[in-house]
Amino acid sequence: MAVSEDGSLVAMAPSLPDDRARDVRGAPALLYDTTSGKTVELERPQEGDAPPEFDNELLPGLKLPDLPDMPDVVMPTQYARFAFSPGNKTLIGQTGLYGQGGRFIVWDLADGRIRRILPGPSESIDAMWVHSDGRSLLTLSEEYQLDGQRTRGVVKLWDLGGEAPKQRVILRWTSPSSGITATDISPDRTRLAMVEVRADGLKATTTLTVHALPSGERLSRERVRTEDVPSGVTVATAGGPVRMYSLTPGTARTAGDLVTRIGGSWEKVDLLGAEDGEPAAVLVGLGMIALVGPGGDAGAWSRLPQPGDIPGVSASPSRSATGTRPEEQMMRLCRILGVEKLPAAAEGKVPPGAYRGPLCS
Q1: Are strands 242-246 and 260-261 parallel, antiparallel or unpaired?
Q2: Residues 237-264: tens digit of each pLDDT
Q3: Whole-model pTM above 0.85?
Q4: CB-based contacts of 280: which residues, under 8 Å, 6+ apart?
Q5: Domain residues of the chain, as ranges?
Q6: Which of 55, 223, 234, 259 ranks highest by number of CB atoms within 10 Å?
Q7: Is there a contact between 254 and 224 (Cβ–Cβ < 8 Å)?
Q8: What is the pLDDT of residue 231?
Q9: Are residues 14 and 324 in contact, defined by beta-carbon separation less than 8 angstroms?
């Protein structure tokens, strides 16, 4: 699932139902317009994905020499993640099991049709963003070492203008930590922020690093001790604030900025209008979305339900509600919240062109 920067569009793909398991096109990508409440089904690719590569090993050390090659096996198209271009002209989806061995599919959002299908990377991708030029893709990948003590990461810039993506490494790192727990890119695509966490007894040492793009130059690096692991980070344009937030109660500070605390378990938080430092937010979680804000408005956050309060919905992000239409998801969220004044908290905080209508009509 992905939310456009102005909050007007949400891209999502339902889980693959049984009746589509034999259709190589897979389930369609859906585009939900928050201003009109309408859903558009984007064009589906006519071919499926190749099966993931296991290098003749299902698990490290477990050889599979007796299994025959299966060159004709095709996996139904499944989407690992989406990313909107600045200005919402195009949408890029990455396909493939676990985001590995799939393809990059580029849609023109003017008509919802596929413009290009390109081979994807061989490595898995943990996060991706469309660059400001609309034809390049920034990706972040991490690899956990077998000793469990280190992680290796890389940030790449992909040129999607040719027949096959051309990659350029912007940044590499090796970290003796639990890995990158949160990343974000500024709206103007000039800054990348990464949050690393390392256990230190009962405390966690959190490191917030900001790099310039596309050079990869380190702009800042600072550490803060917190009682809980930050769940995310948001980056404004050059000169604007960089904020970490957690999905658990508590308080902490870094670089003089209050760490935004949000109640409830939400898989993703996209902040809108971050240039002024007082953004509204689109929350994505449990298969539902909500427009609330501003970031520091504790009263607004307290209105959000805890996952356990939602009948029939698991609190585990891995068991999110899927397979329903976005309109149904929105109506479900409206029934749960049931607070007419909730959208008013975001009024005046969202940027020009962003959704300003009621959350529930």
Answers
A1: parallel
A2: 777 777 776 544 333 332 222 223 333 3
A3: no
A4: 7, 271, 272, 273, 291, 292, 293, 294, 295, 345, 346, 349, 350, 354
A5: 181-261, 279-355
A6: 234
A7: yes
A8: 61
A9: yes
